[in-house]
Amino acid sequence: MTLNLDAGNGTNNGVNAGQLAPKKPGGLSLGLPLEINTARGSADLVDVDLPLERQGWYHGSITRIEAEAVLRLLREGSYLVRNSESTKQDYSLSLKSARGFMHMRIQKNEELNAYILGQFSKPFDSIPEMVRHFSVNRLPIRGAEHMCLLHPVIAQLL
């Protein structure tokens, strides 16, 4: 299954113009346009109960160059997680910013048994928890302090 979460190219992809946000569990609809709910909607797409390998935005063993090719035509705030090329046990968060691409290392701190993004991140029990957190909170990375993870790039199944 392929999921395009950012149909910002002028086509409606089956969504009627002016369509309201999907109903929340329990049948409550906030009645907000989808655009207003972007950050919260992005966080809702991260199921912290699923392991990393089952997350749609986890692309596995792709290179930095391949990640940039995937992100190139997408808008600012688009992101994916991939295996680190340089350190086997680490991961990389690849992000499209206004200035180009950023690749941030996600390291496992063995002492804390937790994952850390860059040098100044608080520790997280899992990478999905980290991604969900930074979907609604700004990144602790110099040059990306103003950014959140807004648009997950779902891996294409071939």
TrEMBL record:
What SUPFAM superfamilies would the database entry show?
Answer: SH2 domain (SSF55550)
Q: Where is the SH2 domain?
A: 57-153
Q: Which Gene3D superfamilies match?
A: SH2 domain
Q: Name one GO molecular function term.
A: phosphotyrosine residue binding
Which Pfam families does the UniProt record give? Answer: SH2
Name the residues that span the membrane.
none
Which UniProt keywords are given for this protein, alphabetically ordered? Phosphoprotein, SH2 domain
SMART domains given in the database record: SH2
- Segments carrying the region annotation (Disordered) are 1-22
InterPro entries (alphabetical): SH2, SH2_dom_sf, SH2_domain_adapters
Residue stretches of biased makeup (Low complexity)? 7-22
Q: Does the keyword Phosphoprotein apply?
A: yes
Report the function annotation for this chain. Answer: May function as an adapter protein.
Entry protein name: SH2 domain-containing adapter protein D
> To which species is this protein native?
Habropoda laboriosa
